[in-house]
Each structure stands twice: as C-alpha cells, then as structure tokens.
Amino acid sequence: MNISSSIRKLTYIFVILFIGLSGGLVYWQVVKADNVTATIHNPRRCSAENSPVRGRIFDRNGVLLAESVPANVCGGFIRHYTDPSLAALIGYYVPGAFIPGIEGQYNDVLTGNSGRTALDNEVNKTLHKSPVGNDIYLTIDERIQKIAVQEFNDYHPETDPFYQQAYSRDVDGQPLALPTNKGSVVVSDPHTGEILAMVSAPGYDPNTMVQTLSKSDYSYYDRMNKDPDHPLYVRPLKELYSPGSTFKTMTLMAALDSGATTLDQPWDKKGAMGPLYYDGRQIIGDNLAFGEFTFRFPITTEYAYANSDNIVFAQLGVRTGMDKWLEYAKRLYIDQQIPFDLPTVKSSVLNADGKPLSTLQLASNAFGQGVVNMSPLQMSLIDNTVANNGVLMRPMLVSKITDKDKNPLQTIDPQQLNTVVSKDTAYQVRQAMAAVAVCGGGWHLGQNYGYQSDIVGKTGTGEVGGGLAAHGWMITQAPFTLHSTDQMPAVTIVGMRENGGEGAYTIGPAIWKIYNDIFAKGYVKANMPAPLTSEPYCANTNLWQPR
C-alpha cells in the first residue's frame, strides 16, 4: 500500500470539499443573498442588518428634511419627515409600498445601490452589516418654503379687510375671490432654474402615511385617496389647468420677438373691442371697461396687456402665424416632456386628437383659453424665461448627492435649455408686466401690500365651464427696474388657486407677502431699485386715462 498516494488523494478530497463549501457560501451569501433575505420563510428578513440605513434628504442650506429613525418595524427603521408640506416633492418611503417623489425617483441613491457606495454595501451585506445609503441635497430653501405655505394658507376672503373693498367685487357686487383650499405655488431662481419652494395644497402628512402603512394599515391612505380635494395630487407638476390671461405672456413674447407687434402699436376702438370673428365665431372679452377706465382710442399693445384685452391678443396670435406661434411654444417645452428630477405631465396647446389647430383655436389659445392646458411648473418656465433675459434654464430640484460623511458623489450644475427670445424682447415683456402690476389688473396689490419689492406680473382667470368658478392665476417676478435692462429679477413666483376666481385677488395677496418676507429677511439677496408706484407712473405713460 502506497501511503503517499493515499494522503495525496485525501488532500484532493479535502480541497474539493473546501472549494465546494466556499462556493456554496459565496453563492448563498452574495449571489442569492437578496433572494434569501426577501423570502417570507426567512425569520431574519426583517432584522436591521438586512435593511439599509436610508440616506437623508436636506435642503440647500443643510436643513434636515428626511431621515431614518429607529423603530419597532421591519428592518428596525422608519422614515421621518421634518416638513410635511414637502410631501408632494419628497414623497414617503415604506418597504414594499409604492414610493412617490424624491424617495422613489432616487431610491437607488438613498439605499446606496448606485455609484461607488454600492460596492461598499455588497461588502456590508456579506459581513451582515446594515447597508448605508447616500444623502441628497435639494434646491429647496426651507425658510422660503415655510413662508410660502404660511401665506398660501392664510387666505380668508370672507373676513379679510382687503376682500371687503369695493374693488374686490365685480360690477354685480359679487366677490372676485372665492373660498378654496386647493392650488399651487412655485418659487424659483430664474437664472439657475432652482426650485426654492413648492406648495401643493391641500397636502397629506407623510409621517402618518409611513406610520400606518408600516403596520399594513391602509386606513389613512384610503382616506387621502378618496378625499374629494385630492391631497395626494402633485398639483404643481402633474395637474393641468386653463391658464387664462397669464398665457398672454407667451403670445406677447412671440409677437414682440417675431416683429408682429410693438408695445406702442396703436389699436383703434374696433381693433381693441371688436366685434372680432374667426371661423364664424365671435371672440369676446375686451376687458377694457370702456366708459369706466378706458375713455378714448387708440390704445397700445402694452395697454391691452395691462388690461387683459382678449380681442387684441387673439389678433396677435393670428398675426404671429400658426407655425411661428407654435415654434415659440416648442422653445418653452410646451407639448414636450420637461426635463426635471421628478415625473411631470406635458402641457399642451394642441388638439388631443392630433388634428391641426383652426384659426379660431389659435386665436383663443393666444389669450389663454382655447385648448391650452398648463401645469404650474410650465407657467414657471414661461415666467423664468422672461426674468432671465429670454434664456430658459432646466428646472432643478436636486443639487448634489453625498455619502453619509458628506463627501460629494455628484454635483448637478444649472443647465441652459433654450434661448427663447432676445434680451430686448424679454425686457419689454417685463415692462408690460410692470404695467399690469402698477397700472392694470394688479395695481391694488401694491397699493395694499407695499411697493418695496417692485413686483411685476400677469394676472389670469382660467375659465373652466360647468358652472364652476375660474382658476385664479398670477405669474410674477421681482425686483424689477425700468432703468436697466441688465438688472434681472432675482426671484419668480407662480401661484394659482383652483376655482378661486380672479387671480389678482385670490392669489395675489399671498404672492406679495411672500416676496416682501423673502427680501426683508434677506433669504434672497438683490439690489432693490427705487419703487415704481402707480402715481405718477401710470398717468405719465398713458396707462391710466383721465376722463
């Protein structure tokens, strides 16, 4: 018997067994680890070592917005949110449930399953340590967010003295602002595209959502889902509305930039008041209050914009031409998917069935009715383009991603999407927006809430039919100066209230207060020009007509 040969054979057997055992361990602990963890027959699938310590979410200044805290639930952690008003943006996280918002869109980042952190977490799994996620920093300024929420919610048209004034009622004595708790606010830096605050109202409490769903209790979710006010809707990003006269801003941009009009172009009485017909249908809504505020003609394009004359703007849309008008809409990403950090819905100026627009539809679209459907985010892009001298920036919500030790993994820089109109055109549109805020539909706002922020904007009343009140809109920017085309507004605010009535009255007060707070507290630094007040500016520019 050869002993050496036997020992060698035994050694081979042990080596083969060792390789097999090692391979089995690698297979079950690495290759099939996730399957083993997930199976319902695994008694340790809910242990902390098998669940990630999810990354945190911060605002632009490092204020904590979301974190995982210890809890007696599967995995040992539960998500906690410091500002429930951001639920529409941040969403909520519960294992096994649908994950909306940033929590869902950046799930791989927050769980550490992407980038170089993913390799570290594979090692952590093998060593039975909890995987660690990465942190996300948003462009949101929590200070501005709180102001926007507070001012949007501080709305009491039945009792507030502003709404009891004669100018807050129509000719029949009916209030121009109606009670509603539904709507949106979008606050932006137009030069970078950064979203500074976003309100979707009414909202829901993400902490209650997490606490109940973690226990397989669907009562709160079901209640929110069935609520007729739809608190689960992401209104600024995923709901479409008739924009009313705020959309005249797009038409004014296109008409000025293409040479179809000038701000001082004269319009005689018929040109300004009609009657005007397209495809056998009459265009109505001169909104000039002839004999009350308007006493003589001609008026100018600027005057028509300040007083929201549908007749003039229907003609401007047709004069600009179908192809050219649609080209400017395309430059603004209308009827396209907006590149953004969260899912959005496409705004549109086209027929849903694909049929070409008729002349009547183009004319109606031009003043914001017709087949126009806009999201608040889309209206913010229009507003931002005007404020940024004609250049459209990609809207931003995520600014950077870091590991748990704050080492940067990715920084997202501002990105230019399009040059929509010239610098001169953008300035002229800002000048026309000043005419609205100081002399036109919004002049009572400065009178009541102060001119210190030099806010300019455009009002809108989006008719919806069916016996429902109109949506009240304003697109605004500040500060504005007439003395320099180079000084651009530092902040834009788009606000709307669903079925709230006239924009200047239903959402204007909240917007004016938000601006005043932002600038007074120094949350946005800006050179504040000398105030542009109604007297004597409106009389000197013929934007007010004496009897």
From TrEMBL:
GO terms for molecular function: penicillin binding. The keyword Cell cycle does not apply. Residues 54-136 form the Penicillin binding protein A dimerisation domain. Residues 183-479 form the Penicillin-binding protein transpeptidase domain. GO terms for biological process: cell wall organization. It holds the Pfam family PBP_dimer_2. The chain crosses the membrane at residues 12-30. SUPFAM superfamilies: beta-lactamase/transpeptidase-like. It comes from the Bacteria. GO terms for cellular component: plasma membrane. Keywords: Membrane, Transmembrane, Transmembrane helix. InterPro entries: Beta-lactam/transpept (IPR050515), Beta-lactam/transpept-like (IPR012338), PBPA_dimer (IPR054120), PCN-bd_Tpept (IPR001460). The keyword rRNA processing does not apply. This is Penicillin-binding protein. It comes from Dictyobacter aurantiacus. The lineage of its organism: Bacteria, Bacillati, Chloroflexota, Ktedonobacteria, Ktedonobacterales.
